[in-house]
């Protein structure tokens, strides 16, 4: 699975099968101005499409059905970026190590100290915000790249690889003047301020692994 669209609000999702815990955590987060949704199970969270909204998930490790730890590991293996804080009445070292390796922000033992939990959630929201900014920048970059013709994409790749205009002209069998024209078009459409800027953009597009469809 690919990354889901980033949450647009700082919504904290609480998943715990204990209603009193859900109510207490909801009250705590709302008291500091955080929008909160609560669920009794992972399945209820998924059925409500909570992944599309939550910027942070506060997740009980031991849940009926799919456990919190199993759910967090499944998210990690599926490539779904999500900020998770795990809580449990019984936390052992092995469990904590598994959770942190799967990308958990923190693993806290119940009864959770309010300050510890709020600090963990704030770190989670901060990471979600950073991830959202990167996704937004990447979306803009892909939209610019989508405006390039196939030839312009080819020129961009060769320019970014460090080839000179004359070398590119020989490679693609056009005149050097034509390469210069395509190169200027690439710089304009990508809104690159300099060659190093264009190279960084090319690297970022390559890291994304998905190219927009060609514009002929």
Offer a quick outline of the entry.
This protein has 216 residues and is an alpha/beta fold. The chain contains 9 helices and 5 strands.
Describe this structure in words.
- This protein has two domains: 11-137, 3-Layer(aba) Sandwich (Rossmann fold); 146-208, Winged helix-like DNA-binding domain superfamily/Winged helix DNA-binding domain (Arc Repressor Mutant, subunit A), CATH 1.10.10.
- The protein is built from nine helices and five strands; from the N terminus they run βαβαβαβαβααααα.
- It has helices at residues 19-31, 42-47, 68-78, 93-101, 114-145, 150-160, 165-172, 176-190, 195-208; strands at residues 11-15, 35-39, 54-60, 84-88, 106-109.
- The protein has a five-stranded parallel sheet with strand order 2-1-3-4-5, sandwiched between helices.
- Strand 4 (84-88), helix 4 (93-101) and strand 5 (106-109) form a beta-alpha-beta unit.
- Helix 6 packs across helix 8.
- The two termini are 30 Å apart.
- Mean pLDDT is 86; it is low at 1-8 and 212-216.
* Rg, Å, rounded: 23 Å
Distance between the termini: 30 Å
Number of domains: 2
As residue ranges, the low-confidence spans are 1-8, 212-216
* CATH level 1 name of the largest domain: Alpha Beta
SSE inventory with pairings:
Blueprint: E1 11-15, H1 19-31, E2 35-39, H2 42-47, E3 54-60, H3 68-78, E4 84-88, H4 93-101, E5 106-109, H5 114-145, H6 150-160, H7 165-172, H8 176-190, H9 195-208
Helix pairs in contact: 6-8, 6-9, 7-8
């Amino acid at each position: 699975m690919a990354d889901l669209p980033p949450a647009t609000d700082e919504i904290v999702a609480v998943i715990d099968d204990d209603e009193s815990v859900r109510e207490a955590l909801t009250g705590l987060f709302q008291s500091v101005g955080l929008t909160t949704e609560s669920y009794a199970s992972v399945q209820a969270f998924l059925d409500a499409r909570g992944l599309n909204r939550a910027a942070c998930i506060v997740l009980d490790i031991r849940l009926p059905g799919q456990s919190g730890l199993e759910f967090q590991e499944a998210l990690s293996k599926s490539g779904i970026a999500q900020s998770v804080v795990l809580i449990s009445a019984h936390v052992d070292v092995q469990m904590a190590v598994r959770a942190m390796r799967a990308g958990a922000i923190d693993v806290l033992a119940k009864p959770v100290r309010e300050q510890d939990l709020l600090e963990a959630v704030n770190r989670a929201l901060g990471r979600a915000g950073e991830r959202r900014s990167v996704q937004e920048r990447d979306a803009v970059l892909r939209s610019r790249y989508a405006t390039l013709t196939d030839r312009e994409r080819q020129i961009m790749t060769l320019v970014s690889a460090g080839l000179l205009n004359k070398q590119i002209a020989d490679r693609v069998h056009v005149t050097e003047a034509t390469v210069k024209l395509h190169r200027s078009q690439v710089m304009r459409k990508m809104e690159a301020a300099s060659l190093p800027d264009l190279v960084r953009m090319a690297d970022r597009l390559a890291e994304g692994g998905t190219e927009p469809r060609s514009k002929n």
